[in-house]
Amino acid sequence: MTRTGSLMDHPVADPGTTVARRPWARRATRLGLVAVLAALAALALAVVMPRGPMTTGQSVTALLVAVTAGAGAGAWTASRWAAPVALLGWVGAFELVRLGVDGPTVDAVRFDSVFAIGAMIAGRGFDTVVMGVPLVVAALGGAAWARRRGGRVAPSRVRRVLGRAGLVAGVLVVAVTAAALVRPASTEAILGPDGRPLAGSVAELVTVPIGGHDQSLMIRGVDADAPVLLFLEGGPGGTAVGSMRYSGEALEQDFVVATWDQRGTGRSADQLEPVATLTLDRMVADGIEVAEYLCDRFDEDGVYLVGSSWGTTLGVLVAQQRPDLVTAYVGAGQMVSQAETDRLMYAESLAYATRSGDLDFAADLLAVGPPPYDDALAYPIALSSNPEWSDFRPGPDHDWRASYPVSLFVAEYTLTEQLRSVAGLYETFSVLYPQLLGLDFRRDVTRLEVPVLLVQGVHEAQGRDVLAREWFAQLDAPSKQLITFDHSGHTPHLDEPGRFAAAMVELRDAVA
After folding, report:
1. Fewer beta carbons within 10 Å, N or C terminal of the chain?
2. pTM, entire model
3. How many of the other CB atoms lie within 10 Å of CB of 375?
4. For 360-394, how does the pLDDT look when each residue is reduced to its tens digit (9 = 90+)?
């Protein structure tokens, strides 16, 4: 009598099937744990840097943590699935932390305008390069190592060759990224006729504690004993280190040119937090501290305060509050009333779109409507997209590299600073710009106790130029002058740098 029938009486699976299923169950469990562990590693970083790595040190740390987590995940599971699973856990942890952080580069991903896409690239795009790609490459490498160690190979030679080639390419990308990240920032010395650093000159990048935050200055001049010029870039959120390197050499012949990366911008982009303290009053106080630092360091009674765009707003307020620190105020592309300028420039853009038959531009303008806007990304659409404002030929000494974004790619920035400067522009603008809408210098600043020079471009937008000339006409100052450059728009110091430097020398001689 046989007992084979007893197997049919009990719901026991075929032993072969059971053995085959167990490795997959173990692998699924391991992959689940990989997602959790990757999320924990990312969480540790996200708490410290919720906007992603903002400094070279943070970038290198984030890359190393990502590589370690990815390699461990791949080696433990011996599965290519470790790469997407670990990445999912990593991204999920970062995005969870970012729910409590505001700003265009960390808010929900949008594709409704080129500026929204730019914010995504400046934020999450950089994160992908520094953390996402290294994590995936390391996970695939770890899995490949584990499979070879276990004697498992791809079923065909073609797949093995392609897999290895792809992995080598990925490793090279990560290696190049790491090498680029650790390149230090520097500014070249000012050389004499003999090709050696010129005696008595100054050329350096410095970090100074300003307003409780470490903020950066590029300081360059042929003669360290020359008058000091403090340059304030526009934005808010812009950085002029690159543009002044390309277009500021003429100024360096007669001034010590100090280009300040304001808090949240350029080399100071990592100083954005806490956002609640990034106020207009704080920025003015920071500008005063920078002027005090320069006067103390170079033994000067005051600085030539030169502003561009938003920098003119900041410069006027600094000069108003502390005229004792300002030898003269110079506005290049002077701002007067941000709210009124916005309304005028919107109307000007809409009129151009209608007149030229640019239906797409007109539709974009009508979609966002007239300012002001709750959405910071709507401002560039209305105020920076009119091609008419850049439709002119600048001066013969204009250097195209002085304009964004090419101006960011100079030795004075590390790779992290180059790419995060764009993020800094988005983030700082979104915080500070709404605070400017209540200002109107025609009402708030009717007198300055320092000499004033305004430099306007013939091709400046009417929404800015009309108000600048109106304010200048009513302004009371010890002396004042308005110069118009024929081959300039909103940035005459960049459009005609030689002529601008000559105007500064004339001003120096007049107030000496």
Report:
1. N
2. 0.90
3. 15
4. 999 999 999 999 999 998 998 888 889 999 999 99
